[in-house]
């Protein structure tokens, strides 16, 4: 069993912050403390010593929202489990929760099997699955318990994308109630897709086909309505609820109101909603298509609300919703009609630097809050705690050595910032302060100062149910 001693770094977790050492034996953290080489002979004889002076030593990132190798919008997302997990690792993420999909009319268990095949032996970091439920008749409800015993303890349902992933309120209620009975969690894409489709029909009739109309046909009020309805149904069904990719002030107000009256609801936002805005859709030469994602980018003023939500815990996590489609050949499918632009954008690699830079360096959140929203809260919400999301004796040695001073300019042309298999970067040209240098996944150094030190070896993680610990 190999051992690693990380020496002299500032070790920050959700509940501690001190300068010291981390000693790793095999896949787990064995000890934490000051000058471990003096007190622990095994640490003094570690196979590898990493000098972390002037660096942050952080729990590996957990990205609870990615779409790797996902068929969508008439094409397939450009990163698979090989390229997507490597890019994630370069950015400091050591666990992904990706979305397996149930094909309509088929078993959710078959969907899970398909996603296991996509990921098996390809991943470099650990991964888990949510299940996207596209129908749930009474006779299939028992599958939800089977999924939970397979470690899939959360389900995503869609109020958006009518005719594709959309489910009606009756299906929502049935699935919510069953998930509640099983002690599992619902993830909700909350937008009123039925009304939005009517608005879109009107726009197309008026000849409005450019990317900007993707945003102008999806009012924030329709996101807020979806959030409000999901919360009401979850309350009746008694299930914990997690709103995915929350993008607007209006939607956040619904979450705050519900939390204020004691509803078990939390929400994530994404770097694109914190840092980019609706004006990107008006870039020339169809470049606005790069930002066509759902929900759409919003007017800039929404960003202040989202940052406040993160600071005061109405938003508990920052996920990426990484769903990359190349500009050439994929986004171009919608050249004459924004409805045909595949929805989604890349981001799995840049989350740590973007949020550290804008959040911590920008004095919006503390370093500890950064750890919570990029790792610990996702671990707690999705049954990965305390194996993941912290640095503590017995936890998986998923650790990032992070240089808080290093500056980089994110770009498709800057190799250090872009390993994703997609021909553009959503955050092209953004200057960041703070960069991932060394990444350990279960004790294995996978990224070492800009180099991929090890490929493969990522495991599927069976998650615990809501509120239970992963042992
Ligand atoms: O545009 C997006 N977000 N694409 C991925 C699917 C989803 O709704 O999360
Ligand atoms: Zn979604
Ligand atoms: Zn998504």
What structural category characterises the helix and strand content? alpha/beta
Which residues sit in consecutive blocks of at least 5 with pLDDT less than 50? none
Q: What is the straight-line distance between the termini?
A: 21 Å
Number of helix segments? Answer: 14
Strand content: 15-25%
Q: What would you call the shape?
A: globular
Distinct bound molecules? N-(aminocarbonyl)-beta-alanine, zinc ion
Please, what is the CATH homologous superfamily of the domain at 60-381?
Metal-dependent hydrolases
Enter the CATH topology name of the domain at 60-381: TIM Barrel
- Whole-angstrom Rg: 21 Å
Overall pLDDT:
98
Return the CATH architecture of the domain at 60-381: Alpha-Beta Barrel
As an assembly, this protein is single chain
Helical fraction equals: 25-40%
Major sheet = 9 strands, mixed
What is the fold's blueprint, element by element?
Elements: E1 3-12, E2 17-25, E3 28-33, H1 36-39, H2 41-44, E4 48-51, E5 56-59, E6 61-66, E7 71-72, E8 75-76, H3 81-90, E9 93-101, H4 108-119, E10 126-132, H5 142-149, E11 154-158, H6 169-181, E12 185-189, H7 193-205, H8 212-216, H9 220-237, E13 241-243, H10 249-260, E14 265-269, H11 271-275, H12 302-311, E15 317-318, H13 351-361, H14 367-381, E16 399-409, E17 431-441, E18 444-448, E19 451-452
Parallel strand pairs: 1-4, 1-5, 6-9, 9-10, 10-11, 11-12, 12-13, 13-14, 14-15
Antiparallel strand pairs: 1-2, 2-3, 5-16, 7-8, 16-17, 17-18, 18-19
Helix pairs in contact: 6-9, 9-10
The protein binds N-(aminocarbonyl)-beta-alanine and zinc ion (2 copies).
One zinc ion binds next to loops.
